[in-house]
Amino acid sequence: SQQGEEDPQALSIQEGENATMNCSYKTSINNLQWYRQNSGRGLVHLILIRSNEREKHSGRLRVTLDTSKKSSSLLITASRAADTASYFCATDALAGRRALTFGSGTRLQVQP
Amino acid sequence: DSGVTQTPKHLITATGQRVTLRCSPRSGDLSVYWYQQSLDQGLQFLIQYYNGEERAKGNILERFSAQQFPDLHSELNLSSLELGDSALYFCASNKGLAGGDTQYFGPGTRLTVL
Lengths: 112, 114
Fold this sequence. Notes:
The structure holds 2 protein chains of 2 kinds.
Chain A: E1 5-7, E2 10-14, E3 19-24, E4 29-37, E5 43-50, E6 55-58, E7 61-66, E8 71-76, E9 85-93, E10 100-102, E11 106-111
Chain B: E1 5-7, E2 10-13, E3 19-24, E4 31-38, E5 42-50, E6 53-57, E7 64-68, E8 74-78, E9 87-94, E10 104-105, E11 109-113
Parallel strand pairs in B: 2-11
Antiparallel strand pairs in B: 1-3, 3-8, 4-5, 4-9, 5-6, 7-8, 9-10, 9-11
């Protein structure tokens, strides 16, 4: 079953614009991670935010976490055509099996 | 390049057959995770091995099994294949026991069952 659900399912923007993707999850977590997947390729880890953190930055990426709302957002600033990919959030649940549970993903298309 | 390798890249087989997918983790990583990615089910965790022992189990069918060898490479065996088993199969690795830490993914094996 999916722990995280991304929103929107698909997003199309122009180069230079910002892209925001949201993730909602159901259970309490240790951390939340964002991964990127180019079409049919392996997933690449982007950023990890722990449950006691509210915001984290990495280059053009900004991730926020609101544990009270069980939600996270990924902002990609000044997007490039090379950012075209699917983006997944993955949660590490606080209880039970210590394994990542992935959301359904957001497909981002950046038009040159 | 994550350092995780998977073979083969593509596999085409028939229903009822058995296949073996292979994964070599990053140097120094003791944990290997297997995932199945399909259009209808998304990315599903199947199973984790740590230093040769099964550590966590996800949505893995009884027709599927895995093992991790002393050199830490892992194999995922899929038997009595059905059309619905067609998917991308990924392995991932990391150093420790904790499945919730950052995982490093291989390029995947695309399985097509005809």
